[in-house]
Structure formats: structure tokens, C-alpha cells
Amino acid sequence: MDVQINYDYRGDDLKDMPLVELAQFVLDHQEKPQNTEVSLSFVTDDEIARLNEQYRGKEGPTDVLSFECDGVEDELSDMVPAGFGDVYELGDVVIAPDVAERQTHEFGTTFEQEVSLLFVHGLLHLCGYDHIVEEDAKVMEALEDEILAAWNAR
User: What are the C-alpha distances in Å from 101 to residues 19, 28, 94, 133?
Assistant: First the structure.
């Protein structure tokens, strides 16, 4: 697994978190191939608000956004043309640490717990999960809880 993290914003708050390992844990749980690549970026409230408006048509900052690269519905063999390379690009996760920090007060979590939850949430979106309808939301939330409990118990 290849996890690329952009620490340009609030890197000092984030570099000690085991985010690469968490991504590997989630992707192993979801049985993604070892040649999977994911990127994670931390951005300002203004930047995530701009992305939220541009890609979701919603105003204001959100906590996490995910952008899929290769189609999760396709068979892996169909995603990478023969001779094109061995990397399965799952997608990009973008997190707003300032939003995450504000949510710690609202939810009674730590900054690391909140960022970890947001990263798992974003990765699950890249794996094909969604929460538009209530049934899907329950499935996704239960999976987040399961993964984080297993992660914390390791």
C-alpha cells in the first residue's frame, strides 16, 4: 500500500499520528490489493469550503471529502490496462483539521480520534460506501465503529 500524505497545513499537529498505518489497516480490512495508492491532504477551512462548493454544491467548510480515482465498481483487472503499471489508485481524502478540532468539543473526542474517524470515513467512501440513505448510513457508521475498535485494540 502506498499512502501519500500532504502535511502542508497543520503538519506539526498531525505528523506523529500513525495515519499511514491506519490507511493500511482499513484497506486490508476492505481487502484492497497491496498495490493500492491513496493520498491524504490536510487543508484550511477556506480550501475545503471551496472544494465543497465546487464538487458538492454545498456552502461552507465540511470535515472530510473523498475523491475517487479508479472505479470501485469495476473489476481490478479492468481498472489498469495491460502494461500500464501496477498501481491501483483508489483516490484522495481531504480533511480540514480546524473543523476536526472544533468537532472534538462537540463530540467529546480527542483531535487524534476525530482525525482518525474522518480518515476512516473518507477511505470507506473510496471503497464504495455511502450514507445518503439511512440504511446505508447505519452500515457505514457500524463499519467505522468496527474498524476503529479493532484499530484501537491492536
Answer: 17, 28, 15, 27
Tell me how crowded residue 119 is: count the other CB atoms within 10 A of its CB.
23
Give the residues across from 38 on adjacent strands.
Answer: 3, 91
Residue 62 CA to residue 48 CA, distance in Å, equals: 7
Alpha carbon distance 48, 7 (integer Å)? 15
Nearest-angstrom CA–CA distance, 43 and 10: 8
Cell of 142: 457500524
Q: What is the pLDDT of residues 12-64, one digit of tens each?
A: 999 999 999 999 999 999 999 888 999 999 999 999 999 999 999 999 999 99
Q: What Rg value do the Cα atoms of the chain yield, rounded?
A: 15
> Could you report the per-residue pLDDT of 89-123, keeping only the tens digit for each?
999 999 999 999 999 999 999 999 999 999 999 99
